[in-house]
Amino acid sequence: MKKLVLTGAAGRLGSYLREPLTQLADELVSTDIAEDIGTLYDGESYVQADLADLDAMIDVLKDADMVVHFGAIGDEAPFEDILGPNIIGAHNVWEAAYRNGVKRVIYASSVHAVGMHKIADNIGIDAPHRPDTFYGLAKCFAEDLGRMYWDKRGVESVHMRIFSCAQVVAPRSLSTWLSYDDLIRMVTAAITAQTVGFSIVYGISNNDRAPVHNTGAGHIGYKPQDNAEQFAETVLANAPPADPTNLAQMTIGGPFATIPLGESGLATMTIVDDSKKT
Q1: What is the pTM of this model?
Q2: Does the active-site annotation cover 135?
Q3: Which of the following is catalytic: 16, 46, 107, 135?
């Protein structure tokens, strides 16, 4: 490929994607609303741009082959805050992709698009939307947007329902962990797959306790290699007793299933900021 675009390049997950994405195209254009993202890798350039600005997205995606769309508010927030970057921003990325003839959008969707499903249901990629927050609702919108742009305009997309892409520090992560290496494997597979049309894949590692399955997504070629079970003894030794009446422990959305709409879910969790520095 000649040109890849990465939105959300200043974020924690974006920081791990930048270097490997430079290996997949002659040019990587990273973009975010931050003033800068540190030292650039060989073949990488940076453009400060707002997802809610359609003209800016059209300019950034000019001559791109594909776009890896990770830009958004990454937590529950009031609907009026989610609307610009997460909903209007998704529309602008797909519309800019269509106008520029971009082949494929690789989208960072989320477990929270289906977060109210029960763990015991062991859902697959065909499970209906069941969002747990405004944040999850925005992911549902983008998934439906991607399906429509494939059906009506021929823009391919892969929607990666990402789970817990962070250090394993709590019992829930033993089932929901996505390692950074598996994140890179999944994004690479979504880019290099021959054809995808409209596709959904769960962004989760090869965990023994995984609450979902990727049956039906084999054409993408994502083969996770890491397993959170290696952390089980340490994590469970320090954990309080399980509570089967706690909805946060019964649903795949975890604590996002129980927080009031519009209030932060990450504030109830322990997320280590181990962003990759350049």
Answers
A1: 0.96
A2: yes
A3: 135
